[in-house]
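Researcher: Next sequence.
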Amino acid sequence: MKTRTTDLCDTFFPNLQIAEPIFRDYGGKLDFAGTIVTARVYEDNGVVRKILEEPGNGRVLVVDGGGSLRRAIIGDHIGELACASGWAGVLINGCIRDIQGLGQILIGVKALNAIPLRPLKSGKGERDMVVSFAGVTFTPGHYLYADEDGVVVSEKELHLS
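Model: Next structure:
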């Protein structure tokens, strides 16, 4: 991503949603952007894995993990899968694990925190619905832009001239 979130805010606010600053960077790529795909899970990553197995085409998976700090949603194995499938990034309202491994993968990963306990694997969850957390409503098909300064969401793709 060549466009900084600060520049987008300077140019397009108030037509943006700006996420509360609750996320930490864990992926090997700190800036990422793309069309939003959503999932809602709780301490389980079966649905997340299925989505990230699909061709990403530069999209961003937004996962509402209910803000759980008890289990990770993804680790380095799923991070590698997402990168290989062409996803730009993953934003998680929950935890990750395998910090060192994720940091070596060229994909954007933002989450609340890290925890060593792996996720459940029952496959419970849903996809492609509107989810809200961090003061933002994430709608499939809208655009997410993320970097070290934060996360912003727009109804349409943005370009600075």
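Model: The chain has one domain: 23-138. The radius of gyration is 14 Å.
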